[in-house]
Amino acid sequence: MTKKHREAIQKQFTRTAEAFSKFAVRDTPEVLTEKVEFAKPQPTDLALDVACGPGAYALALAPRVKFARGIDITEEMIRRARAFQAEKQIANAAFDCGEAEALPYSDATFDLVTCQMSFHHMPKPELALGEMVRVTKPEGRIVLIDTLGPESDSKFELHNAIESTRDPSHSSALRLTTFLKMFDDCGLEILRQSLKRRQRSFNHWMLRAGLELHHKRYQETRKLLEDSIPGDKAGYSPQVQDDDIIIVHNEGMFLLGKAAKSEI
Ligand SMILES: C[S@@+](CC[C@H](N)C(=O)[O-])C[C@H]1O[C@@H](n2cnc3c(N)ncnc32)[C@H](O)[C@@H]1O
User: Fold this and answer.
1) Of the residues 7, 9, 27, which should be mutated to test ligand 1's pocket, given the most ligand atoms within 8 Å of the CB?
2) Contact predicate 159/173, CB 8 Å
3) Which of 104, 125, 148, 237 is the most exposed place for a label (fewest CB within 10 A)?
4) Model confidence at 55, in pLDDT bands (50, 70, 90)?
């Protein structure tokens, strides 16, 4: 990762750590439970959540595993995750500051390695996935959850332009086909796959990025989205509702295993 991109991520997520934590109800308690169940957590598992943000997923996994760690590049996110842990009085969890592309853990350390809603911030997500594979035990599981970019080229470009206008640290919402190729390249087999259409309020989504009506970037993002409505040119299936717009993020959830060497 370039120094410039690292700084863009740290600036965005330091600036928005409070808003992000407060409005992180992108995952309602029901959706968070769904994501925990999807990972098939076991009481003996050592779990790691990569790019953990304020720690919601790691702390939701903790009661179901032996120990849960989270790691994130943004110190302020780690500070929030630790505060959230203290508030919830969860003893079997810990948080580290570090990069997904260079995880500070030994090979084959974890039974369960997860990463959600973060690959779209990484210019080279294959490096992070390679690291996740490295630190996973041979019989371990990897859970990858992220928004999916549209397969159509024109929609893909506009979709990512809207995402980058909202959040300059956005890199690219990967297509399902790109994820599948990356899994194959990393020698992973898909144990389970679930594709979801997650409806969101545009205004709420903007708040999570620290943006309100009076901000220039709110106005620019909203204009791009509104212009995309005829023909759904950016793949958000947008629907105006009073002063808000209901949008859809297609989300891929993948449970992956290390393929046996002979099968690679
Ligand atoms: C959209 S937030 C998602 C946080 C959390 N996974 C969740 O779902 O609530 C993206 C997070 O990825 C982190 N991040 C981005 N690139 C990273 C990298 N290369 N290594 C570690 N963390 C990274 C950011 O600091 C931020 O906390």
Assistant:
1) 9
2) yes
3) 104
4) very high
